[in-house]
Amino acid sequence: MADVVKAIIPAGGLGTRFLPFTKAVPKELLPILNKPAIQYIVEEGLASDISQFFVITSKGKSAIEDHFDPNVELELLLKERNQLDLISSLERIARAAQFCYIRQSEPLGLGHAIWSARHTIGKEYFGVFLPDDIIISKVPAMLQLLKIARQEKASVIAVQEVPIEQVSSYGVISIKKQLTPNLFQVSHVVEKPDQKESPSNLAIVGRYVLSNKIFASLEQIEADKKGELQLTDAISHMMHNNEKVFAFKIQGMRYDVGNPIGWIKAIIGCALQDPQCAPHITKLLEDRDLIESFTLNRSKIVEHSL
Ligand code: G1P
User: Which atom of ligand 1 is nearest to the CA of 205?
Assistant: First the structure.
């Protein structure tokens, strides 16, 4: 299999779970400590030897482009102040990565977003990163998938076990064959099944290595009830046309940063990995009195008449 150097990042979604914040600011720029969520995705890509990122955007998402574009005035100012290290992570990205932005004119689903980038991918396999899923791991999640893709010469999707009550929030795989404790050959995939009808509790988490055959399948599947093209349906279609697909239980901690609670968990989880933040956050989590010292306790408020 030729090297996989391209990845699609669908970032056109409205971010309704984060309204009103996402009215004017893309959810992909939500900060996790001092970096926006999408920067974690790009860094994972670079650490997996992916260097070309095709970001699918929509109206109101241009701040993503500004984030990765060089800003000469800021760089000069920081240089004068001897503070260039504040943006060194972005400089590293600018040196190693190429970005191309593709506008998705209508919100017609994840499948349509991927299809919008069809002209950028040739005959090769490519990666897909869903930016709501931040995965922190020793070996980058995408690199884990690429290793399997090279070994099996086939498409691979990342999965994790979820409690059965939660399967209706995910695409779920049906297992054809278990090859190792973490590797499965897939027979089909179902998008957001009812708990009772779910083929397993192995949920797709937002990393894929896909064959370019996915584009032909995306052209042949029907839209769902909401009028959206589902990537999951195209993956099933591709499998029924004799393309093998594997699922790998990804090793790492995954956060769904597309909703406020998942985002808070990501911040706490990442802060606990950060040498400067960790002691403060550990103390905070262990010390009930400390939390109470900055929490408004309505029962203790005495109303004084002026
Ligand atoms: C998307 C995919 C779904 C996958 C999930 C992972 O759903 O359609 O198959 O399991 O991402 O986060 P969404 O969360 O965008 O509804």
Answer: 6
Q: Is residue 281 part of a domain?
A: no
In a domain, 298, yes or no: no
Contact by Cβ (8 Å): 12, 56: yes
Q: Is the CB of 206 under 6 A from ligand 1?
A: yes
CATH number, position 45: 3.90.550.10
Range of the domain at 189: 6-274
- Res. 4: pLDDT tops 80: yes
Q: Quick one: which of 80, 29, 86, 24 has its CA closest to 55?
A: 29
37 lines ligand 1 (CB under 6 A): no
pLDDT of residue 6: 97
Cis omega before residue 31 (within 30°)? no
pTM over 0.90: yes
Confidence of residue 306 (pLDDT cuts 50, 70, 90): low
Exposure of 144 by Cβ count < 10 A (0-12 exposed, 13-18 middle, 19+ buried)? buried
Tokens of 143: 């690199």
**Per the domain annotation, does 305 fall within a domain?**
no
Residue 247 within any structural domain of the chain: yes
Ligand 1 proximity of 22 Cβ (cutoff 6 Å): no
What confidence tens digit (pLDDT) does each residue in 217-242 have? 999 999 999 999 999 999 999 999 99
CB of 191 within 6 A of ligand 1: the answer is yes
> Which of 41, 110, 188 has most ligand 1 atoms within 8 Å of CB, for mutation?
110
Number of domains in the chain: 1
CA 137–ligand 1 middle distance (angstroms): 20
User: Does ligand 1 lie within 6 Å of residue 189's CB atom?
Assistant: no
